[in-house]
Design a protein that fits this description.
The chain is of the alpha+beta class. The chain has 6 helices and 5 strands; from the N terminus they run ααβαβαβββαα. It has a 5-stranded mixed sheet, with helices on both faces.
Length: 230
């Protein structure tokens, strides 16, 4: 009976997290049109975990993320996102969230499948302008959101990491749809906040690692991630 109640409670919390995230993205002021497209097409997975950055939560996330990247089309067709929500984590500020984000990414990398390799379309060096996190052999752009974010577009009730396959952005570029989408999103971001995130840059201009947490970082900032396996 106790086990059944625990299982029911976990499902209820995950359903609540999904409802909250849907409402967050559905807000008319929310600027990311790609995220809205993911919602419309039901192309997202949402899972709930414990503490952001912990070994246990990262291991559970790794198993689910591996299943996600195995199912998403390799050619980038459609729009897909994996949303990992951590309701038990309450970061006090942006720096703490950023630290936990990179702890999670490092743990994911260290527990990636031995034969997965790094996605050859991106760099594994976080200082390289062509860097992107890779898991299961697939490049993923990571968006961190949390209640202490200075960026309104990233201010969500609970800490969460959103993993977006790079291939879908490259497909949009190939079809001439990425630039108009990017322009519309940036216009909406300015309407919401009055400014763009100073770390915002296109892939290949500067390392996207600077964008993952959402915190404005200076030129002296160095990404704590390091590749430990081929």
């Amino acid at each position: 009976m106790t086990e059944h109640r625990a299982s029911t409670s976990a499902r209820t919390l995950e359903e609540r997290a999904e409802a909250e995230f849907r409402a967050f993205v559905a807000d008319p002021r929310f600027p990311c049109l790609a995220a809205k497209g993911v919602m419309r097409s039901e192309g997202f997975w949402l899972r709930r975990y414990g503490v952001l950055g912990s070994a246990r939560s990262s291991a559970s996330l790794g198993g689910d993320l591996a299943a996600f990247v195995a199912e998403v089309p390799h050619d980038g067709a459609g729009l897909h996102s994996f949303v990992a929500v951590f309701p038990r984590s309450v970061p006090t500020d942006e720096c703490e969230f950023e630290r936990r984000l990179w702890e999670t990414i490092q743990r994911l990398h260290e527990h990636d499948a031995p034969n997965a390799g790094w996605d050859p379309t991106v760099s594994a060096d976080p200082d390289d302008p062509h860097f992107s996190f890779s898991f299961g052999g697939r490049a993923l752009f990571v968006v961190g959101i949390h209640p202490a974010s200075s960026r309104l577009a990233r201010r969500f009730r609970w800490p969460a990491l959103v993993f977006n396959p790079h291939a879908q952005f490259e497909r949009l570029r190939a079809h001439g749809r990425f630039a108009p989408l990017r322009a519309a999103v940036r216009e909406r971001e300015i309407a919401l906040q009055g400014s763009l995130n100073p770390n915002l840059a296109d892939f290949g201009e500067q390392s996207e690692a600077r964008q993952y947490s959402g915190r404005a970082v200076g030129a002296e900032w160095r990404c704590p991630f390091h590749r430990t396996r081929s």
